[in-house]
Amino acid sequence: KAVRFSITVMSVSVQAEGEEEAVTIFRESKPNSELTCKPLCLMLVDESDHETLTAVLGPLVAERNAMKHSRLILSLGGLPRSIRFLFRGTGYDEKMVREMEGLEASGSTYICTLCDSTRAEASHNMVLHSITRSHDENLERYELWRTNPFSESAEELRDRVKGVSAKPFMETQPTLDALHCDIGNATEFYKIFQDEIGEVYRRPNPSREERRSWRATLDKQLRRKMKLRPVMRMNGNYARRLMTREAVEAVCELVPSEERRDALRELMGLYLQMK
Ligand SMILES: [Zn+2]
């Protein structure tokens, strides 16, 4: 497997002496382009192999930490300028975030890389979440995990550190990655499509059989019109195909009410605009 670690200069700002606010003089418009996103390190390594990955990236992380905590003084135009670097780690997928932040693998009870929610809690509350995890706290938790200062049982200790089980290695920005965002949204739309086909707004609490038949109808239509084969679990490719005008048109053929069809088209239109 190949793992690439790259860097982009996202923006440059200048703060004049005595001024409160900095002025941004450069902002990268294509941060993902290969012209601007330069590889710092290309390695042949399995990204889940924590030991090898940390050994290869170790020097890079050390240098980055040194840069974070110091200033570079350069003479530009005859005047010494003090330059500071701010790093933001982005573009990691969930697996890599877990790896970098020392969290248990994705099968863990501690399901979320952004908060302390467990699987059971998350299944009861899928909406109200806020980002509470941070790199510094993960580091503190690792110390608790390593030293077990309160002499707790393995179970108690694991609950205290909320699934931190390795030393956090590099700071990542706690955000949702684009892939999982797409998957989450498409999962929701897939449910909405079924409900609209069955006109659930007119008769709440449908039976399990009814729901199953709506789903079968939706699957059949998507297969016929979009060449989309039903999946056990939403994935990125399915999500990208489902979240299109074409797909919503296919679904609308099965929605009896004109008003609901328009609403569905508008909803997808808004989503695509937002994206
Ligand atoms: Zn969460």
TrEMBL record:
Residues 1-108 form the V(D)J recombination-activating protein 1 RNase H domain. Residues 174-275 form the V(D)J recombination-activating protein 1 ZnH2 domain. GO terms for cellular component: DNA recombinase complex; endodeoxyribonuclease complex; nucleus. One of its GO terms (molecular function) is histone binding. GO terms for biological process: adaptive immune response; B cell differentiation; chromatin organization; T cell differentiation in thymus; V(D)J recombination. Residues 110-172 form the V(D)J recombination-activating protein 1 ZnC2 domain. Pfam families: RAG1_RNase_H (PF26100), RAG1_ZnC2 (PF26101), RAG1_ZnH2 (PF26104). Signal peptide: none annotated. This is Recombination activating protein 1.
